[in-house]
Amino acid sequence: MPFAQNGLNDNIGQMMFNNDGTQIATTQNDLLGIVYIADFDRCYGTLSNYKKIQVPAQPSGPVLDSTTTGVCFSPNNQFLYVAKYDHILQYNLTDNTWYYVRYKDTTDAAFNGYNTLCLAPNNKIYIGNWNGLVKQMSVIDNPNGAGINCNFCRKCLRTDNIIDGILSNAPCMPNYSLGSMPGCATVGVSAFNSSKEEFEVYPNPTQSKFKIKIKNPNSKKELYNSIGQLILSTKENEIDVHNLSKGMYYLKVGNQTKKVVVE
Q: Where do the domains of the chain lie, and which CATH numbers do they carry?
């Protein structure tokens, strides 16, 4: 797996999915300032289209600032937020542009350091602290905003008491609202292995139409998007997709599911 290649340095960092489960990103304590990102197939559990993204370095700072610590996607999946020890950056996944969100906000001796990032149910990103237990945690109030429009709020989550490091680090919780992919969780091993014999779909990828070859041509065909929403249901053996957005979809026939791509 390309995400695990630096030995003990892989032990420190953060790994997060985006909000429809189609991409995954991870940071590592490799002192190289790199973020790894890949597409994720929720139906088959496979990774593809690996990218190694170099995070810009701050003009001056400690060696620790070469380490990427935290990573988190924005609610709309357009931006990837990356924490280094001294500052927070935002990466626009649509045009590969970097923005500095926040630099170090105090002296070296007093600075706690930025660590893990977590998108909360209120669609705000909370930022953990590297050093020690503190009474405050910084917040990104509008993660869908580009650059300074994301509204970084310095130490805006506050508490009067430190209870077992409650504000030391943001929790890394999965997105439980995603649920399971239609046709994936219930497909057994034997059904999965025989899926190629059940039906064929071509051309795949396509820009216009999918054609389906199946023993029972009157079988119901269902097309789902990447987050499991039903797009259409038909008994036709040709599906017109030229009006759909580019991306990955799932075609379900009976209890078999295949990944299809619209270009």
A: 7-177 (2.120.10.30), 189-262 (2.60.40.10)
